[in-house]
Amino acid sequence: MEHAYLGEMTDIVLGQEFLTWMWYKSESQAGRFKADSGEPFALFMEQRVSVTGGEGDAKETTSVSGLLSELREAKIGLAMGKKVSKALVRIEADAEQWTATLKAEDFSLSSFKTPKVETRREEGEDPDSAFLEKMYLMERGLAFLDCVFLEFLALRFSGGWKEEAAAVGRWMAQDA
Amino acid sequence: MGFLSASASFTRYRIIEEIPDTLWPEIADRLRRNAFKDIDHTSDERSFGWVAFDDMLDADWRTAPPQKGEFITMGLRLDTRRVSPAVFKKHLALALADEMARMEQTKGKAYVSRDRKTELKEQTKLRLMARTLPIPAQFDVVWNTTSGVVYLASIQSKLRALFEDMFTMTFDLHLEPMTPYYQALARLGEERASALEDLEPTIFV
User: Fold this and answer.
1) Which residues are paired to B80 by β-bridges?
2) What is the pTM of this model?
C-alpha cells in the first residue's frame, strides 16, 4: 500500500474528470481542437478506455477495447456514475500522428508513439540528430495534450462549469 | 524502453526552483560524483547511479557529454541481484540438514537453535547472492533546460521515488511531478491550493 500524498484526492478527481470531459469534448466536436498558437489538431479517444467508480473495496473498473467499437460498455459505465481512469488517446496534426495511453491520476504516459523518426544517419550529420528530432516530436505531441488540459482547467474553475457538466451528463445519457 | 524506442512510457516533472548559473558548468562533475558503480564482483544486492544516455557501460562520460542541444541527458542505471525463492529454499534446506548432522555428531542431538537458523539463512542468502549476476536496467532521463521539464522513462512508483531522490541529491534541485494537481496549482496559483485540495468531484449524471 502506498502512502497518501498531498493532493492525491485532487489528482484522482481532476484527472478522471479531465479524461471524461475530453471524451465528451472530442466526440461532440468531431475531434477538432485548436492549440494556443491557433494551429488546428485532432484528438480522439478510441480503441481502449477504462472507467472506474466506487471507493475502497467497492471500487470497480471496466476496461473496454475494440478497433472500431463505440466502447458502449464504457459509456454505460459513465452513465452509471463511473469516470474515465485511463484511455488511449490519438492526436493528429499536419498528417502526423501520436498515440499514448494516459493515466488519469498521475498523467503518466505509456506506449507513447510519435511520428516515425529516421534513425539512419547521413554522413556528416550530427550524431544527436535522431534524438533531437525525437524529443521535438515528443514535446510537440505533449503540447497538444497540455493545451486540452488547460482548456479543461479554465472551464472547470469557471462559472460555466455547471452548464458544461450538464452537457457532459446529457451526452452520457444519450449514448448509454 | 527508452525515449528513442518506437514506444515509450514516461513520467514528467518540473523543476520548481530557480537554477543557479553556477550549476551548468558543474553538470558533468556532479553526474560523475553520483555515477553508477558496478557490483558484478561483489555480493551487493543492488547498486544505482548515473551513466551516459547512449551507453550504460559508460559511467564516466567518455563516449559523449550529457548535453545534447538544449537537453541534458543521462541514464539512471539500477542493477539488482535476485535469488530465486526456490533456489534459496533448497540451499537453506541443505544448510539446515548439514547443521543437524553436525549437531548430532558433536552434541548427540539433532537440534538447530532459532538464532543459528537465522544465521544460516543470512549466510545462505549471501553465498547465493555472490553467485548470482546482477540484472542491469537503464532508465533514460532527459532534462529540457529551456522549459525546466524533466522526463523519466518509467512509470513505476518505486523507480520514480529513487529517481527523485537521486536527482535532488545530484543537482540540489527539487522536482514536482506534473500530475493533475500540480499542473492545476501552477495554473491557478498557490493561493488556490487549499481550494484545490478540497475539490469536490463533479456529478455528471
Assistant:
1) B46, B135
2) 0.91
